[in-house]
Amino acid sequence: MVVSANHAKQADFGFLQDTLPTESCPEFNGYNTRLCIEQVHTIRPKTQVDYLPLDMTPSDPDTIMTSLQKAKVLSSQYGLNLIVFTGDLQLYRVAINIM
User: Domain of life, per the record (predicted)?
Assistant: First the structure.
């Protein structure tokens, strides 16, 4: 983790050094893509995010439970180790109570 953080800091600093003195500044993503190509790194495909339809009351515990179970199934299908749950405080409290 420390190696990744140091690499990210160096990349950020390199971006600033390379782009601030020039008039045409590329976007950070474009800069990193060019840098990866120059360093012969493989470029990973874009991440895809899909939202599932929610046809029940969001704050209902059954809805949250169903959503969490579906997320678990999908994450295991795609070989993911982590599920990101995003919601407001009310939904977060319901999810915590379920867990």
Answer: Eukaryota
Question: In residues, how long is the chain?
Answer: 99
* pLDDT of 89 higher than 80: yes
The angle at the Cα of 65, spanning 76 to 83, to the nearest 5 degrees, equals 35
Q: Rounded to an integer, what distance in angstroms lies between the CA atom of residue 54 and that of residue 45?
A: 28
- Start-to-end Cα distance in the chain: 28
Q: State the amino acid at position 66 in one-letter form.
A: T
Closest CA to 74 of 88, 64, 84: 84
Q: 14-50: per-residue pLDDT in tens?
A: 888 887 777 777 787 788 788 888 888 776 777 777 7
